[in-house]
Amino acid sequence: MSDEKLVGIVLVSHSAAVATAVAELAKGLAGGGAAVPVAAAGGTEGGGLGTSAELVAAAAASVDRGAGVALLTDLGSAVLTVKALLAEGDELPGSARLVDAPFVEGAVAAVVTAATGADLDAVTAAASEAYAYRKV
Amino acid sequence: MLDADFFRRWMTATAASVHREADRLTALDSPIGDADHGSNLQRGFTAVTAALEKEETDTPGAVLVLAGRQLISTVGGASGPLYGTLLRRTGKALGDAAEVSEAEFAEALRAGVDAVMQLGGAAPGDKTMIDALVPAVAALGDGFGAAGTAAERGAEATTPLQARKGRASYLGERSIGHQDPGATSSALLIAALGEAGGK
To answer: How far is B143 from chain A (nearest CA, A)?
Structure first.
């Protein structure tokens, strides 16, 4: 089985543990999720809390299969770092996109949708729609 | 006219100032932030001066674009992309000119500040670095000294404000009564222009 055409997902959190765990959760909840390229970019390079532009760029490159890369972030510097990298022009794959979505629910929706072979627009829409899921 | 050497001196002077004031910046960031502003900026500007020593930069624009890229890569907090965008956009606006006038620099810095407002979504009065940078740009026509004073006053004027952006905004009214760390470091950046001009 080839995953060459699947959209790649990058999860950017202030915490390496959070990014890794959400990646595992999303892949675990997605039927066929194991085939989706998902990379965690959590914390600083030194292992502290924060955002590393280098880790984000490396994660995005590692999941780029040519079908686009969706980046989901938690807050603050994670959002701003991805936006700044996108504005930079050459640090992220050309198809990379910041997805406006809740981090955990959006990650699950993105991986489930990507596993079906959906394109980047569909993955983005599914992740953003996770905002509409009210709990109370 | 301002040449690449002037802009290298500006970055070196900022790095020295951030180093000197790192403890104060972190102390300001303790009650309303996560107590890392001084150390984050110190790491960033140390990388900036190291990169400027290592890589050739012939134009004002190239100096600022290189500095901005270092800040985005190395700071690790929100100030990295914000200051990185400020310097990169200012540098891009200066283009390839070998020398720029103070008026051209003021215009470019205005473009940089606009890019920061767009990136972070902050407006004047939100208790952010914008509250020091906007008055500084407005005063730049009267010289670096006037811009430094305007930035310092802008930073001091953030004390009674309630934060509306960033982590401090979660504190609501409890953010009132503290000077904003980002506005304070922005005032250091602008003050360093005067040092770079005076050699």
So the answer is: 30
Distance (Å) from the C-alpha of residue B85 to the closest C-alpha of chain A?
7
> At the top level of CATH, which class does the domain A1-66+100-136 belong to?
alpha beta
Which residue range(s) make up the domain with B75? 2-198
A:B CB pairs within 8 Å: 51
Distance, in Å, from the CA atom of B73 to the CA atom of A85, rounded to the nearest integer, reads: 9
pLDDT at B67 over 70: yes
* Strand pairing class (B99-100; B2-3): antiparallel
pLDDT at A1: 45
Instruction: Please report residues of B whose CB lies closer than 8 A to that of A83.
Output: 81, 119
Q: How many domains does chain B have?
A: 1
In B44-187, DSSP assigns E strands to 99-100
The CATH number for B55's domain is 1.25.40.340
pLDDT at B41: 96
CA distance B197 to A18: 46
B84–A84: do the CB atoms touch at under 8 Å? Answer: yes
Using DSSP's 3-state secondary structure scheme, residue B55 falls into coil
CA distance linking residue A93 with residue B165, whole number of Å:
29
B76/A51 CB distance under 8 A: yes
Cα–Cα dist B184/B41, whole Å = 12
For the cut 80, the answer to whether the pLDDT of residue A89 exceeds it is: no
Average of per-residue pLDDT across B79-89: 96
Interface confidence, given as ipTM, is 0.85
Element (H, E) at B95: none
Secondary-structure breakdown of chain A: helix, strand, coil percentages, each rounded to the nearest 5: 50, 15, 35
Tokens of B67: 């500095």
User: Nearest by CB to B80, which of A49, A81, A88?
Assistant: A81
Residue A16 predicted with pLDDT over 90? yes
